[in-house]
């Protein structure tokens, strides 16, 4: 690893420079958004924000998203402990399991979004229900695995869980934006990204 040959302060400095460089690259790409003509004169009063928060569809999405992201963060946080302490796998196999979760997530983020657009014609709710059901079945399946050959069964399950449980966050964000008026989409996304990390934090502490 790079940390074995380079002082960690230099590594963090390099990351800081890279982050600043990324920001500079974005500067010429940024353009002020132009809202639709019918909405150019509208403002967003506090009453509208409160009304958005009382939106039943949005509230249902956020409640489900809270629990979904709690489960997602638990998968990332505890899969290596599950592999080593329950299945008695080596640390190398536990690392492979975590990488399979990441690989499944990469595939799922593209595939699930595309499926919701083309296969389900924009019906986000149907896709999110499928994601939740498959994720629950996958987690339930981990309960029955035993040391030995169960390690290899776990590899298949964590890939599936990565595909479903670790990849639907962008779809939740899309559903949140579509649940409110266009002029409130930025506020709704901000609200969503307040609930999402709360689920991750509470879920990890509770199950940990």
Mean pLDDT: 85
The number of helices is 8
Please summarize the sheet with the most strands.
none
Broad structural category? mainly alpha
Taken from the alpha-carbon principal axes, the silhouette is globular
How widely separated are the two ends? Answer: 29 Å
Could you name the ranges where pLDDT drops below 50 across 5 or more consecutive residues?
A: none
**Rg from Cα:** 21 Å
According to DSSP, the number of beta strands is 0
Sheet-strand content, in percent, reads: under 5%
Helix content: over 70%
- Helix/strand order, N-terminal first: HHHHHHHH
Secondary structure layout plus pairing:
Blueprint lengths: L7 H19 L19 H8 L2 H31 L4 H29 L4 H19 L7 H15 L4 H10 L6 H23 L1
Helix pairs in contact: 3-4, 3-7, 3-8, 4-6, 5-6, 7-8
General description of the model:
With 208 residues, this protein is an all-alpha fold. 74% of the residues lie in helices and 0% in strands. It has eight helices and no strands. The protein has helices at 8-26, 46-53, 56-86, 91-119, 124-142, 150-164, 169-178, 185-207. Helix 3 packs antiparallel against helix 7 (169-178) and helix 4 packs parallel to helix 6. The protein is globular. The model has no long low-confidence stretch (mean pLDDT 85).
């Amino acid at each position: 690893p790079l940390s074995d040959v380079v002082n960690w302060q230099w590594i963090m400095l390099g990351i800081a420079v890279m982050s600043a460089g990324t920001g500079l690259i974005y500067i010429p790409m940024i353009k002020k958004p132009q809202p639709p003509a019918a909405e150019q004169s509208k403002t967003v009063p506090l009453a509208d924000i409160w009304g958005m928060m009382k939106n039943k569809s949005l509230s249902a999405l956020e409640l489900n998203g809270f629990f979904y992201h709690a489960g997602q963060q638990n998968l990332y946080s505890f899969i290596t402990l599950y592999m080593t302490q329950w299945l008695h796998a080596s640390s190398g196999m536990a690392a492979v399991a975590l990488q399979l979760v990441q690989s499944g997530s990469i595939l799922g983020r593209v595939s699930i979004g595309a499926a919701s657009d083309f296969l389900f014609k924009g019906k986000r709710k149907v896709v999110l229900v499928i994601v939740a059901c498959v994720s629950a079945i996958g987690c339930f399946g981990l309960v029955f695995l035993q040391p030995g050959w169960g390690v290899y069964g776990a590899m298949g399950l964590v890939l599936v869980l990565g595909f479903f449980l670790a990849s639907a966050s962008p779809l939740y964000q899309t559903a949140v934006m579509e649940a409110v008026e266009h002029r409130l989409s930025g506020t709704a996304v901000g609200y969503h990204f307040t609930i999402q990390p709360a689920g991750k934090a509470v879920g990890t502490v509770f199950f940990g």
